[in-house]
Amino acid sequence: TFETWNVASYKAEADLGSPQVVDLGCHVLNPKGNDESVARRIIQLVPASLSFDYFAARRKIQGDDSAGSPPSPTGRQFDPPITDEQVGASFHDAPYKNNEATIAFVYFSEIENQYDDAKPIVAALIRLIGELLIGTPGYHSQSNMLAFPDVNEAVKFGLRLMEELKETKLTDDYADLSKLIKLGCVHDTFLTMGPHKTTGRADYFGKVVNRAARITAKSELGTVNYGVLADDSVGKLPRLDRSIISELKGIKQLKGVQEEMALYECTLDTRPLGLQRGRVVPMM
């Protein structure tokens, strides 16, 4: 289980030969001698000499495709564990097809700024994010980094998270934490991805990660946003549910990003369902 690995992982290099760590997701287990089932996140450890090189297998081919694909990685891959049920996404469920993903960040630094003992509040928020991801196509890559197959799913999750935080009070003063966080996302190709060496969760590399982080940093507190290249036409904007309104908030020059990016803020259309059309509002 992840709890066991969290205690023992410091021995990974010295005593265990640095095994490959793969997150298998959350599973329902029925331990012997226990009348009640329990849900636990499962970690798979593979000896380094037998491990499959996911980073090589999922590396984006650069330049002329006619140069041929790189050699097929060697190593072992295994069937899913035998449990009562898988209820949370695993590394194998993280988006990677065609080397594309929507990377999203949830920034909660304002919580850390406003509360002297912010650690338990942030920990509760991270747990809530994990719970809300169950049953969605989203994947919890890092504490504040998420991966989705497309912008629509990321925005829907962000808006749901904001609504949940208005009702779920995680602080002693019953503050509305939706006003103290922000979510931003970008869809693009990534260079490669594979399991993080300690957590086993999907770790992404490429421009999309930095762009998503920068878009989030430029967003306002309490908002859900996405970014696209500024020279993309309206026809290239992501297709969102009809219940979502996206408003252009400006063209941004982001640190570490050569191209200018357009920042769109998303809100729920509160009109009756029959009147909802899903629309993009230009910057006033």
Structural commentary:
An 8-stranded mixed beta sheet has the order 5-6-4-7-10-12-11-13, with helices on both faces. It has a 3-stranded antiparallel beta sheet with strand order 2-1-3. It has 6 helices and 13 strands. It is globular, with a radius of gyration of 20 Å. It has helices at about 1-10, 55, 110-115, 120-135, 150-165, 205-220; strands spanning about 20-30, 40-45, 85, 100-105, 140, 145-150, 180-190, 190-195, 200-205, 225-230, 245-250, 260-270, 280. By secondary structure, the chain is α+β, with helices and mostly antiparallel strands. It starts with a helix and ends with a strand. Helices cover about 20% and strands about 25% of the residues.
Q: Average pLDDT, to the nearest integer?
A: 90
Task: Give me the secondary-structure category.
Answer: alpha+beta
Name the helicity range.
10-25%
N- to C-terminal separation?
52 Å
Q: What is the 3D form?
A: globular
Task: Give the helices and strands as they follow along the chain.
Answer: HEEHEEHHEEHEEEHEEEE
Strand order of the largest sheet: 5-6-4-7-10-12-11-13
Unreliable residue stretches: none
Determine Rg (CA atoms, Å).
20 Å
Biggest beta sheet summary: 8 strands, mixed
Count of beta strands: 13
Proportion of residues in β-strands: 25-35%
